Amino acid sequence: MKIGVGQSGFTLIEVIMAVAIFTLLMLAMNALFISLYRQQGVDTAMTKRTQSMNYVLGTMSRELRGSNRGEDGSFFIAEAGSNSLTFYSDINKDGLTEKISYALDGTDFKKTITEPGSSSLYAGAGVSSVVCPEIKNGGTPIFTYYNKSYTGSEVPMSIPVKALDISMIGVSLTANTVSQNKSYPLHVETKIQLRNSN
Question: Whole-model pTM?
Answer without folding.
Answer: 0.78
